[in-house]
């Protein structure tokens, strides 16, 4: 594939299309699995960007032999922003990173701040915030560098968008985060203040000539933060956690305690089990485990333990397939290995 930014899709060769498809598949699989199993979308995103970076690193290591350059196709290039054939870049650039430090820095923010934010607002709202952050960051960069042909990559706008949304909705939550040379539970407002303040200071230093040139798109970070901050509260309406509910206060519950309370409320009723409903009531050891589950499964940990035991002693009443335990935002449930439509209980 030729290395110029005025290419058309028709110039792509067969091998280029294969590598493009492979990158898309690698990016989508962790997110699809997280959605299918009702696992954390934030952790799925972390795995997605890290896997893509490994492939990107492999391609860069054999650049001369493979002749495929993901940055040329998927990065944000401001001078191409008005071209409909290149508007995919505003999203796809978030999966590319300059090096392992770059991707791990973003993965850290997405994991440490993104997971509790997802627990607060739910997966669909979290995805909306993530996309708003990355789009806001890229738009800020495009608008401020309209004549630039230098590629911009990374999920930093999305990561700062997560901090902006968290700051807007639950600023008093305390989350474990590396800040001021130590990892401890810091309030979200302090994390956001320090991270955003550093970005503004670095921009000021560059503009005043007190710092050298940089390849970091500080304005994109700020754009992602403020767009997500501005839109977070309307998006978070109706979320599992009420907006502004204090996550940590003197003598009050921590955010983890509140999340536990919310998870306990979603555990579900144990009365109508799928085997009895299907006309195939459990017998023997499986029946005894089910009785214990009903007697003792009123706490998250004990319910998980008995559900795991039950999964080992039963099969799907619909297809006879293996029964697995899955984590549904902190709540253990049973699911059929063949299809979640067969069993999703309790």
Summarize it:
By secondary structure, the chain is mainly α.
Features:
about 350 residues, mainly alpha, Rhomboid-like fold, 2 domains, three-stranded antiparallel beta sheet, 15 helices, 5 strands
Q: How many separate domains?
A: 2
| CATH top level class name of the largest domain | Mainly Alpha
The CATH architecture term of the largest domain is Up-down Bundle
Strand content: 5-15%
Give a quick account of the main beta sheet: strands, pairing sense, barrel closure.
Answer: 3 strands, antiparallel
Distance between termini?
Answer: 52 Å
Strand segment count: 5
Helix/strand-derived category reads mainly alpha
Helix content: 55-70%
Rg of Cα set: 24 Å
The secondary-structure element order is HHHHHHHHHEEHHHHHHEEE
Describe it.
This protein is mainly α and 346 residues long. The chain folds into two domains: 9-236, Rhomboid-like (Rhomboid-like fold, Up-down Bundle); 267-345, no CATH class. It contains 15 helices and five strands. It has helices at residues 14-36, 41-61, 63-66, 70-74, 89-92, 100-112, 114-121, 123-144, 156-169, 188-207, 218-236, 255-265, 274-277, 284-296, 300-312, and strands at 174-179, 182-187, 323-328, 331-336, 344-345. A three-stranded antiparallel sheet has the order 3-4-5, covered by helices on one side. A two-stranded antiparallel sheet has the order 1-2. A hairpin with a 7-residue loop joins strand 4 and strand 5. Helix 1 (14-36) runs antiparallel to helix 2 (41-61), helix 8 crosses helix 9 and helix 14 runs antiparallel to helix 15 (300-312). The model is unreliable at 248-253 (pLDDT under 50).
């Amino acid at each position: 594939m030729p290395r110029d930014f005025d290419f058309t899709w028709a110039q792509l060769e067969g091998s280029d299309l294969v590598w493009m498809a492979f990158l898309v598949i690698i990016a989508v699989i962790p997110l699809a699995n997280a959605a299918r199993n009702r696992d954390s979308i934030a952790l799925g995103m972390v795995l997605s960007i890290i896997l893509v970076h490994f492939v990107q690193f492999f391609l860069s290591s054999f650049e001369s032999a493979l002749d495929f350059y993901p940055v040329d196709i998927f990065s944000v290039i401001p001078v191409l922003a008005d071209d409909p054939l290149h508007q995919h870049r505003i999203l796809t650039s978030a999966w590319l990173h300059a090096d392992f430090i770059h991707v791990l820095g973003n993965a850290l923010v997405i994991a440490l701040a993104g997971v509790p934010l997802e627990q607060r607002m739910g997966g669909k709202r979290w995805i909306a915030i993530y996309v708003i952050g990355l789009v806001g960051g890229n738009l800020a960069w495009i608008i401020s560098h309209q004549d630039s042909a230098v590629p911009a990559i990374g999920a930093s706008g999305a990561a700062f968008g997560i901090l902006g949304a968290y700051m807007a909705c639950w600023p008093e939550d305390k989350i474990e985060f590396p800040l001021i040379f130590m990892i401890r539970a810091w309030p979200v407002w302090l994390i956001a203040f320090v991270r955003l303040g550093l970005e503004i200071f670095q921009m000021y230093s560059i503009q005043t000539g007190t710092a050298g040139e940089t390849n970091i798109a500080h304005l994109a970070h700020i754009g992602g933060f403020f767009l997500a901050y501005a839109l977070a509260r309307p998006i978070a309406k109706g979320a599992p956690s009420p907006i502004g509910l204090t996550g940590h206060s003197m003598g009050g519950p921590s955010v983890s305690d509140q999340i536990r309370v919310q998870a306990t409320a979603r555990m579900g009723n144990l009365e109508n089990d799928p085997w009895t409903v299907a006309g195939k009531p459990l017998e023997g050891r499986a029946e005894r485990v089910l009785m214990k589950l009903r007697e003792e499964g009123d706490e998250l940990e004990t319910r998980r333990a008995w559900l795991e035991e039950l999964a080992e002693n039963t099969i799907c009443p619909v297809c006879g397939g293996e029964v697995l335990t899955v984590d549904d935002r902190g709540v253990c449930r049973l699911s059929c290995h063949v299809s979640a439509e067969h069993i999703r209980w309790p």
